[in-house]
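Bench notes, bay 3.
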Amino acid sequence: MGLFSKKYTVGVHNGSFHADDAFAVATLSILLQGDIQIIRTRNSEELSRCDYVVDVGSIYKPTDKRFDHHQKGGAGERENGVPYAAFGLVWKEYGERICGDVRVAQKIDHDLVQFVDVMDNGVGKSVPVIADVYSFDVCSVIALMNPSGGEERVVNEYFNRAVDFAKNTIEQCVWSFRMLFVGESLIDDAYIKSEDKRFIVLEEDVEWREIVPKYKDVLFVVEGTSHADQWKVRAVRDTVHSFLNRKDLPIGWAGKQNTELVEESGVPDALFCHNKRFIATAGSREGAIALAKKALEA
């Protein structure tokens, strides 16, 4: 918009807020390059004057820029059965435009948007990761931002903070997932070039944990670190959500470092092996490759 133009108005309900409305508004803020004024109200007359309305108003009509899901029957669901909340409806309309890449937009929908939609619609089931410990997720973070007993002005101020948090999260996802897909071709090339398909060597720093598991024969990845004199060998897991290695590093290496690890592994520049045997380091590319080969023999 021009220097003296009126900002786009985005209507959203007042009162306590959740991840759904915060992320929906954040998406519009990114789309409109921050040139928005947030109107927090349930007054239908005020909402009718807004350029965009999310999570209130009982209307889902993208052509009119209305994105609510509280009407009778909701606002539809995805092919996998996950119902849309306001964030999902806004992302469905504008996500690809924001990302500039349909794959990135779809991955953000899968990894972030659908979870927020599920939680806001009260479907699915939250289960502990272990004992009585539950995930502390983005929905939990934003719920915690609601001030206790705050007057409307204070609640609005905290909602703006929640929107900023949501914007930062979305923007980080866009950047990270773009890099993920850029790295995919480098990973594929490394796999093709690997003589022993049980491990690959990545010459560049790329995120591989979601891509490499598609190669069922890869057990270890050798990669550099931010330190020029240090390389890593990491165990591959079937998914990023698993803590189970396809193959552990040797039990005799667990927790050892420097001289102890050198003696145990026989690799002259071996530096460290984690107690859980999913990562070990060496002082050179050759040393990390040697560790990987020895781990394969164990």
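Next record in the batch:
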Amino acid sequence: MHHLLISDLRTHCRGEILSDAVNLAIYSTDASMYQIRPVVVVIPHDEEDLITAVKIAYDHRIPIIPRGGGTGLAGQAIGEAMILDLSKNFRNITSLNVDNHWVIVEPGVVRDVLNEFLAPHKLHFAPDPATSSRANIGGMIANNSSGTKSIIYGKTIDHVLEIKVLLSDGTILYLKEHPPEEYEQIAKLSTREGEIYREIKLIVKNNLDEIKSRFPTVMRRVGGYNLDEFSDTDHWNLSKLIVGSEGTLGIILEAKIKLTPLPSCTIACLSHFDSMNAAIRAVQEIIKYHPAAVEIIDHTVINLSRQNIATRDSCRVIEGDPAAVLIIEFHGEDEEETFKQVQTMAYDLQLKNIGYAHPVFKQGQAYTDILNVRKKDSG
């Protein structure tokens, strides 16, 4: 049915064109429970090749789905469409500014690989999903990933400065923050860019009351387009609209993202609970101590981790048979001072009969064991 599309792709693209049954089966799944066979899979060789593939899909009226590491849990990277796998050939870190704390990356750069590159400069890209060893920066932007440390670092949207984006018709936009006069100048252009700037402003203006009253104010909301980013500012940055759009508005070609200094030390407390409800209720008390991260692991995952060869040794940090544990992480500048602060929290929780054990760990083997269980939990 789609032989003309595939023929055009093979004729004009230099990257890999996958249309055989095995590869289509492989790309029909991601980390979600869904399975949808794609029309074709394209692994573009470079940006020029990617633009060619998109234009061919546009001519054939075939949907486009950009794909990174495929770690999303809601089927974002699959569909009856042309899948564009950007995880293989779009891995360049193109520019780093240590003094001003930003880096420009292609969408296929893996989050942990980027942070390994940044570590000698005492910087990191802060959003920390459990799948950080596989998650691509482009996918993190598309899904507005948050991770355990969103309490202090926020979501990916809080770290995106600029995005170079490819639209479905081959148009390339450079989206960044503009003061009102600059934005209006762009909106007056007769180009596709001008049209988009005008229409988005109109959408927000016509629905401003609804946006302000209906958009949830919870910290971890990542559903829908981020129109609320434009409701209380006159310095608009349309890259914020690409964040969380899950590939439906355009394909990220490059992103300028904000970096954060690495903390001097990290301390973890592993709080144990006899019931899931007790663990959930405890979070409200724990937040008062200003942790960097709080994450829950339930009894099922603990049991599976104890049986898994990759995590069973790490489970020695878990005491008894808890219904749930909370991994509570703290950042600080002075290790001994931070350690004492975390011990104080652990002592207070014990006094209030919140949980039954609260061991505190400095960085070392036990600390690594905790992180290993947490990371493998989402493997």
